[in-house]
Amino acid sequence: MRCAFLVRLLLCAGIALIGKVHAQETLAIRAYQANCASCHGADRRGKIGVPNLADKIWLWGGDTASIETTIRHGIRSSDPATRQGAMPGFKHNDAELTDENIADLLVKLRQLAGRQADAKAVERADENWVWCVDCHGKEGKGMQSIGAPDLIDGEWLYGGDKQSIAESIGEGRKGVCPGGNGKLDDAAIKSLAQWLAEK
Ligand code: HEC
Ligand code: HEC
Predict the structure, then answer these.
(1) Same domain flag for 10 and 74
(2) What does the pLDDT look like over 96-118, one tens digit per residue?
(3) Which ligand 2 atom is at minimum distance from the Cα of 59?
(4) Which atom of ligand 2 is the closest one to the Cα of 175?
(5) Which of 27, 79, 177, 194 to mutate to test the pocket of ligand 1 (most atoms within 8 A of CB)?
(6) Any residues with Cβ below 6 Å from ligand 1, and which?
(7) How far is the CA of 169 from the centre of ligand 2 (A)?
(8) DSSP strand E in 56-128: where?
(9) CA-to-CA distance for 176 and 58, rounded, in angstroms?
């Protein structure tokens, strides 16, 4: 008798918990479709310049707290606490890189990724690679604290063909995410962060 009661109690608690998780997920999916899907896609897979939120790669960190910060304040948004830092255009700043310099840097990236690369070009590129290491790291693996992507994982936010990579380096990039944009309440932001971190 007592045993049956316990079983029923556990069952009820279980159902209540599943119900709560389900309600949170519904809230997240609704908020996502209304506020995020237009850019990140209904399937969360993004497009050129807009990151895939369904994979394991995170520019700004993939734990729940990091994702929550991204959604709450956005990236290069108008929020005063926005995430910032950007990819400079190296044709137009102090480095004044030429197309040839950039072509050599592309070879350097191939070498860092463990692929075959012309040693002479890599040697020439090393002189300019110093411009990159503060943000992308000596080995090109990126830095989540400033949203600098891993350059050797074979995944490219802005396209992985030579021309797209050269354009990223020469002209710079500044992707903007409005995040919740002041429109989402705390519960929606938290449920979105949880949902995106768990997938
Ligand atoms: C106007 C288009 C747009 C909308 C709307 C938008 N985003 Fe974004 N989002 C972006 C872009 C572009 C980036 C990449 C920013 C960068 O380059 O760092 C981004 C980045 C992110 C990231 C960081 C991904 C990573 O790899 O670290 C998260 C998380 C995110 N968005 C979530 C959301 C959520 C949740 C919503 C809805 C509440 C939303 N975004 C709405 C364009 C958008
Ligand atoms: C001040 C920090 C900073 C420096 C210095 C910097 N980068 Fe970046 N880089 C970034 C950030 C941040 C992004 C992502 C911009 C965005 O998401 O819109 C980026 C993006 C890129 C991309 C696009 C990656 C992709 O996935 O499409 C390439 C390629 C790149 N950087 C190469 C370089 C090279 C080569 C150098 C040195 C010549 C360099 N970066 C120097 C911060 C930096």
Answers:
(1) yes
(2) 999 999 999 999 999 999 999 99
(3) 17
(4) 18
(5) 177
(6) 35-36, 38-40, 49-51, 53, 58-60, 67, 70-71, 75, 147, 175-180, 192, 196
(7) 7
(8) none
(9) 15
Contact present, 101 and 128 (Cβ < 8 Å): yes
CA distances from 84 to 81, 98, 149, 168, 173 (A): 9, 27, 14, 17, 12
Interior angle at CA 176, CA 192 and CA 196, nearest 5: 20
Whether pLDDT at 181 is above 90:
no
Residue 177 is assigned to a structural domain of this protein? no
**Residues spanned by the domain of 69:** 2-82+182-198
What is the predicted pLDDT for the residue at 178?
96
Indicate whether 125 and 103 sit together in one domain: yes
**Can you give the pLDDT at residue 13?**
59
Length of the chain: 199
pTM confidence score: 0.92
Split into its structural domains, the chain has a count of: 2
